[in-house]
Amino acid sequence: MDIRKTILTRFGGVYVFIAAFCVCIVIKVFIIQHTSKWDKEVERLEIKEFALSGRRGDICAADGSPLATSVPFYILRMDLGAPGLSKDFNSKVDSLSGCLSRFFRDKSAGAYKAELKRAYSQEKHYFQIGPRKVSYSELQEIKKFPILRRGRNKGGLMPEQSDERVYPSGDLANRTLGKLTRDGGGESSSGNAGAFGLEQSFEKELRGEDGMAVKQNMSGRWFIISKDDPEDGKNIITTLDVRMQDQVTYALKLQMEKSNAGYGTAILMEVKTGDIKAIANFGKNKKGELIGGYQNYAIGNAGCSEPGSTFKLASLMAAFEDGKIDTSTMVETGNGIWNYKKIEIKDSDYKKGGHGKITAKHAFELSSNIGVAKLITQGYAGHEKDFISRVRKMGMFEKLDLGIQGEAIPYINQPDDKTWSGISLAWLSFGYELKVTPMQTLTFYNAVANGGCMMKPRLVKGITENGSVREKIGTEKLKWSICSAKTLQMAHAMLEGVVTNGTAKGIETRAYKIAGKSGTAQVANNKDGYSKGGQKIYQSSFAGYFPADDPKYSCIVVINDPKGGDYYGSSVAGPVFKQIADYVYAYELGLSEDADLPRRKIENDIPSGTAGRKKDIAKVLDELDILNGFAFTKSEYVEAKPDEDGLELSNREIKKGLVPNVRGMGATDAVYLLENNGLRVSVRGRGKVKSQSVKAGSKIQRGQNIVLVLS
């Protein structure tokens, strides 16, 4: 028994020891798991996945030049725990601090030194230096700074790239191109999507495919241990022409400012293809300031309104097609006032006594509401649905599906609608009780110019990748023919007559023929109807094509709520149409010798106040057969001023470190010169530099913004 008891006692002791040992192990594991020291070690060995975004594709003009592109910028970061940094950090930090201070000009060299030494003592591995992102060219300069010039392992420089969306042509067609979800500077294509316009509609193509990187945190520094590269976005090739877009934008803005209008839009389309060569929009913000691209009035709900007299073309063409009338049909317009079912219908010039009895063609040319209303009501009374059906068959009320979100749906009042009344047919005939966008109206006019073939407006013609065409978006015919050849012939004659013998005689030119129709509509003021306290809002428009004898381009201009008493389409929208047509004819179609296009008065054969590169100005003066003495000037940039004896020549000296004088230079020379000196340039207007926001001769602050106003 003693032996058995002894054995059991010994085994019991062993069991107790083992149990106690296990308890100790469990306690130790618990302690280890909840010790901050080991928490930090886990963090240092942490593995994470990071999304990698490729470069966002470009949106390009028809010739391939970028309208929206992604440009790389860099955040400067420094690994102050880099293994090779300890060699001479303390001896070189003064030099590096001085370079950074002179480059960024945001703080003293002493302040930079203090920050760097503090970060170095704390072994910060991801320390940002500098207050802003830098461009690629600036990065190359920074890479030459002391310490940083030795690269990442020895110098610690870790530039972090992010692509910013920039628009080389400024605000041209910005509502159509769109923006990314984050407005303003610093838009990174990484993680941002298109907010509207083409940026939104072609988000999938422009964005590309995201990649993935697996990184491990080793002693505070992240290292890539595996990587799946992203796929860059594709490029979108639009139908826009930069020079035409610039001219359309300029012409519209000029009239908007002159008439202090509420909003306006202008569209230029190629007749045969339906290609949109230019599209401009201007509106006012809450402060009453005129802003380009405030809304897309060309296609959106904001611009979907009663077109007024431009719809008279569709009305009369419907009557022609149904055999109700022809251009020689006579109609009595009387004294300019017609009482129709207890409602007065007036012609715009009723105060002058009216037009009396005239032909349907002349009623259209004079934009007689009475003439058109009588012709339509006499032809379709009791058969109102036939009129609406015929207009619909001509494609006037079809949604166009342009590929941009937000297109408004056209509307026309129907006999079965609650809003239909006894006067609805008459009002429809001259463009009321219906709503269409300017793009829908232009598509109809373009079909008339195109021999009756209605083309779908095209804004994007292809998608490319690495220089190769991945997808071609061809032209599309919405209707092979909107009407008979006879109807079309009469429509052409009426549209040409408007310019030669009607309301738009003021835009007639000897250089080429214009065909079109002016429109003036009184528009509803929200819930207050067509008049509130005697205040009326008008919308002026002009739609047409040119040259009328061989149509190449169609165009529409719509200006809403012009102030100053003049609101007629022929005098507000018509001049904008002509200015656009004059430019396109001269630029694209060839200017004839007897053209009477507007010209600046030339007082002197010698250009006034011209500055730029010596060789360029000398070439111009040589072409003008003006002797010059530029061979005796030493500066690369010169200035030429006329004086009593002919031409005064002077050097335009460029001093290193000082802001150059670019007044009188063209935009190309001025921007090149300023950007080469480290300035960021914004240009407003066109022509020669009229003024510069930073005074010439002042000390250059690298990265500083300078605004050039062109004359």
Describe this structure in words.
This protein has 21 helices and 31 strands. By secondary structure, it is α+β, with helices and mostly antiparallel strands. It has five domains: 33 residues; 189 residues, Penicillin-binding protein 2a (Domain 2) (Alpha-Beta Complex); 348 residues, DD-peptidase/beta-lactamase superfamily (Beta-lactamase), CATH 3.40.710.10; 54 residues, no CATH class; 57 residues, Trypsin Inhibitor V, Chain A (2-Layer Sandwich). Strand 24 and strand 25 form a beta hairpin. Helix 3 crosses helix 4, helix 10 runs antiparallel to helix 19 and helix 11 runs antiparallel to helix 17. It is extended and about 135 Å long. About 4% of the residues have low confidence.
Please tally the β strands and state the result: 31
The CATH top-level class label of the largest domain: Alpha Beta
CATH architecture of the largest domain: 3-Layer(aba) Sandwich
Overall number of domains: 5
- Strand fraction equals 15-25%
Mean pLDDT: 81
Overall spatial form: extended
Rounded Rg: 36 Å
Structural class: alpha+beta
Tally of individual helices: 21
Largest sheet: 8 strands, mixed
Low-confidence stretches: 183-190, 591-606, 627-632
What is the straight-line distance between the termini?
Answer: 120 Å
Helix content: 25-40%
Here the CATH topology of the largest domain equals: Beta-lactamase
